[in-house]
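Q: What changes when S-adenosylmethionine is included in the input?
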Amino acid sequence: MPTPALTFANGIDAENYRFLQEHVHSQAGIVLEGNKHYLFESRLAPIVRQLGLNSINDLCALLKATRKPEVGRSVVEAMTTNETYFFRDPAHYDAIRTVLLPSLKQQRKDTNKLRFWSAASSTGQEAYSLAMLLTEFGFPGWNISILGTDFSSAIVDRARSGKYHQIEVNRGLPAALLVKHFLRSGVEWQLSDTLRRMVRFETIDLRNSMRAMGPFDLVFCRNVLIYFDAATKLKILKEIHGTLFRGGWLFLGGAETAFGVDEWFDRLTIGTASVYVAR
Ligand SMILES: C[S@@+](CC[C@H](N)C(=O)[O-])C[C@H]1O[C@@H](n2cnc3c(N)ncnc32)[C@H](O)[C@@H]1O
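A: The predicted holo structure follows.
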């Protein structure tokens, strides 16, 4: 008699757990350790229900049997963590306002052109915070573009809409900026078209080659590298370096540090913010 497959208490077979780990890793580079059963259960339950299946094991069987790319993609997107909020890590925005923008205003006075990138932009709060900061700072008549990119297309669609729930505008957004740049729309808040037009969102996997996208004056790559293995992280940092102007700035998440990048970046401290300056 064959030995029954080992089953975890919450119902994902050991083999299926490994299959899901491998699937998410190969599709998005995200490393999920062996103790994320609850995360898989809670994030994949809606997909299981939507497809009329009974369990995550059934979902795995479907994926293995059909390799349905759209189901495979929705599984990966469900496993991404999209936590974000307006003006996250205020010290970064302070450094941009007090040091980077005055210097760019001088450096770029001949072209009047500035380019920014919010890599892993999630639902857009990071890119729109920057748009508000630039508007408040004042670059009248300048050609300013902000690119927001994320792996998840559903998330990118939400970012494009510029619509936020009350709970989202309550997080990090000063009341004065809410009143100035948003209008109430039912139970949501709609960002003004002027600010929405400053930001373009695209679906991009950070593991792809990105050099052609630059050059940028500033790149935010915050709270995403933590999900990758060391080799992927280094490769992405090298690619980002290739998208920055010499002297361009990179911000990582408040709790993230980059090792092995001394060849490409100098590390600068401004207030409590760490900035990686492209060599
Ligand atoms: C925690 S959010 C960070 C949002 C924002 N940068 C911040 O710090 O508030 C991480 C984002 O990274 C995205 N992500 C994960 N893997 C990715 C990949 N391989 N390429 C691009 N984006 C990815 C997720 O979809 C998610 O929206």
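Observations recorded in class: The first helix runs from residue 14 to 28.
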